[in-house]
Structure formats: structure tokens, C-alpha cells
Amino acid sequence: MHSTPRFRQGVFTFEGKGLDRPAPLDPALSYVVPDGFTAQAVYFRGGNAAPELVTFVLMRDGSPMRYFPIGAKGDVHVPLRVVEDLTAGTAVDLWLAAPAGLAGTVVVDLGLVEI
Question: What is the pLDDT of residues 14-30, one digit of tens each?
Fold first, then answer.
């Protein structure tokens, strides 16, 4: 079985809209499973340079799939260990929820694999 790793990663600035109002962070954090393939999320790593809690929301076709809270000036590493299959055409995006008006920088690395 052949697999291809896919990474969505980078350093991004943000301005929060509210912890209850997640919003897309950057188009670079979007991924659509190609036709004829299945994908799986393998891990999530994130860092938060802001002085307050932020939460990454892994969206699947526009609905929340997983939440990754990161404390003030903290980081997280979550091995997902092939939690579920993402079928062809599935859109996956990372959004960010942060307190309204909070501005800061986050580092993110989402690892996926296409099968």
C-alpha cells in the first residue's frame, strides 16, 4: 500500500473574534482529499505566543471535527493515530477561536496521509 504525507503548516498572525466564534486562519491550512484517495489525520502540533488561551478547530466539510486548545504561551502535540478515514472530496480546514480583540501569533503543523 502506497501512502503520501501531506502537511498543513506555518506561522500565522491572528485577531480573535471570540472563543465561541472560530474563523478560518489562512487558506494554506485547507486540504481537500483528492478523487480516488482516502486520507487520515496523523498528528496536530501547535504553539501559541499570545498571552491567553486559543483553540484550533479542525473542520470537516464545514463542521467541527476536533478541538485543540492551547494555553497562553503554550504548545500541544496530539498524535491522532488514524482516528478516522476522510473520503475523497472531504474538505479539511484549521480554524482558530480566540478571545475577541486578542492579537497574536500561532505556529501550526497538521500531518495527514493520503492512501
Answer: 999 999 999 999 999 99
Of the candidates 50, 41, 82, 92, the one whose C-alpha atom is nearest the C-alpha of residue 69 is 50
Rounded distance, CA 113 to CA 11, Å? 21
Residue type, 62: G
Count the neighbouring beta carbons within 10 Å of the beta carbon of residue 41: 25
Q: What is the pTM of this model?
A: 0.93
Return the amino acid letter for 70: I
Dist CA 21 CA 112 (whole Å): 25
- 30 neighbors 93 (Cβ within 8 angstroms): yes
CA nearest to 92, candidates 108, 107, 76: 108
CB atoms within 10 A of CB 99: 15
Q: Are 89 and 46 in contact (CB under 8 A)?
A: no
Residue pLDDT, tens place only, 53-83: 999 999 999 999 999 999 999 999 999 976 7
